[in-house]
Design goal:
The protein is an alpha/beta fold. It has one domain. The protein has helices spanning 3-6, 53-75, 80-88, 93-105, and strands spanning 24-26, 35-37, 111-114, 144-145, 150-151. It has a 5-stranded mixed β-sheet with strand order 2-1-3-5-4. The protein starts with a helix and ends with a strand.
Amino acid sequence: MNAYHRLRPWTDIESCECADVKGLFLVDLLSDNPIHCENCRREVDPERIGLTTEETEAIAHWYWAANALYRLWLLSGEYEMYAKERLLDPSGEVNVEGRQIAQALSAKLPTRLWFFHDSDDGEPTACPVCGNPLNTAVKWGTGRCDACLIQI
């Protein structure tokens, strides 16, 4: 299986149909592709936006771990707290790697990592990385930190 196929949307219903993709989110919406359009939040085929094989493989590698942690948290079993701690840790491997990928992709298209938060903990008001107030002028989620490439 080639790198593009690993992250290609499975159906047209899931695919972004925007004329131009102007920005991206790296987010786990329980699909096989974490690359989502910032406008419609649907999946974006990596080939459509000209990602290289290396960039696509890096996203797939990161997503494998991020998705595993997210699903462990969803199971609400003995690993729930462990997974939540890992997903909330801005210095943890999955978040550091996700932000690095977002930074690299931003050379082509503005990209933000959709940072995990548990709605049971209330709405975040500050960036989990730098602590600055979130910009709440967002279409999706609670806010964003442009300096840290985070969307919540």
